[in-house]
Amino acid sequence: MSNNLLKGKRGIIFGALNENSIAWKVAERAHEEGATFVLTNAPIAMRMGEINALAEKTGCKVIPADATKVEDLENLVVQAQEILGGKIDFVLHSIGMSVNVRKGKHYTENDYNYYNTAMDVSAISLHKTLATLMKHDALNEWGSVVALTYIAAQRIFPDYNDMADAKSLLESISRSFGYHYGIKKKVRVNTISQSPTPTTAGQGIKGFTEFINFSEQMSPLGNAPAIACADYCVSMFSDLTRYVTMQNLFHDGGFSNTGVTQQVIDKFGNE
User: Fold this and answer.
1) Of 32, 125, 216, 262, which has the fewest Cβ atoms less than 10 A away?
2) DSSP 3-state helix, strand, coil percentages of the chain (rounded to 5)?
3) pTM, entire model
4) Looking at domain 10-269, what is its CATH homologous superfamily?
5) 246-268: per-residue pLDDT in tens?
């Protein structure tokens, strides 16, 4: 059901790979709520995914861009405004990648070239995106930028590896840039810390299936699905959350504030 929460708003959505992607769900929900937007992803990710099908479904254009390359981002920002007919109101940053995780490296034995790549792709790309938007004065006042993160930025999850460090940096960039963009243009910048979600990236983490089951039992409301995260993103893009900025917003069914649940206690008691 649409409430036209984003009617008349223009956006850029990074990171839609396939229908399991949170960014994919955000695009579908933003379209339902009346937004127009462009989709973007790195060329290599576009070859792997199904982004063109999403573009057709939502009636939008796809602009290839490597978010680690400023020249690609500048082209994206300029083209997006030309295609959409004006300045941008919202941006979703849904980008994350770790070669160390893919190759099964232990955190204490990470390859530092891979480590630097993880930081650049998963976190510094947000700084580059925000800096490019600011340089081109591409965001309207009260615009909203949301980046997706995970609680491993605050707590240890051994197999999350260097992605935990990347998410910590991502959240810091969101706070710092949120301050400066708020002062300059009343733009708000936030991160949403989502439940473990069976996306293509998430399923590549060792022990993911076991952990998602544990998280389900540790969350009073259960794990938040991708579509619920999309709804939260839509609310953050809307005018209903104008004074929310520089926040890390947990969207995890209560996991982040739960020490233990009776369900978990009973499980150990039965062993």
Assistant:
1) 262
2) 50, 15, 35
3) 0.95
4) NAD(P)-binding Rossmann-like Domain (3.40.50.720)
5) 999 999 999 999 999 888 888 88
